[in-house]
Amino acid sequence: MTLPFFVYGTLRPGEVNHDLFLRGRTRSEVPGRLSGAVLYEGPGYPYAVEEPGGGVVCGELVTARPETYAELLAELDRLEDCVPGDPRSLYERVERKVVRDADGAVVRAWVYVAAPAVAARLRTHGRPIAGGDWRARR
C-alpha cells in the first residue's frame, strides 16, 4: 500500500536525516498532526508513543515520488530499526490518520511509533516533549 509518511523527528525538513533520505525523493512535504500520541525524548531522536486520549505530535506529511517509493520505504524501515515481528525493533511502522494543517483534511499515513518494549520503558522512565513538537524542545 502506497501511503505518505508522517515524520516528526530527524526526518523533518532542516533536520539531519531529511537531506540524507528525503531530499529530491518527495513530491510534497506539508505540516500535519498526529493525535493520540505522546512524544518522548530519545537518544538524539524522538519516539511517538501511542496513548488513547494522549496528546498531539507535530510533524510533516511527506509524499514520496512514485519512482522512489519502494526504495525509500525499505531505507526508512532500516533507519528506524523497524523489523516486523522482531521484539528488538525500536519502532513499528503503523498506518494512522494524520490531520493536514493547511486544510484540516484527514490523511492515512505511515507513522513510525515506539515498538512495544520501547514504549513501555518510555511510559515508565521517559521524558515527554511538551507540546509534542521535536523542534520546540530546543
From TrEMBL:
It holds the Pfam family GGACT. Coiled coil: none annotated. InterPro entries: AIG2-like_dom, GGCT-like, GGCT-like_sf. Transmembrane segments: none annotated. Gene3D superfamilies: Gamma-glutamyl cyclotransferase-like. Residues 5-135 form the Gamma-glutamylcyclotransferase AIG2-like domain. CDD domains: GGCT_like. This is Gamma-glutamylcyclotransferase AIG2-like domain-containing protein. The lineage of its organism: Bacteria, Bacillati, Actinomycetota, Actinomycetes, Kitasatosporales.
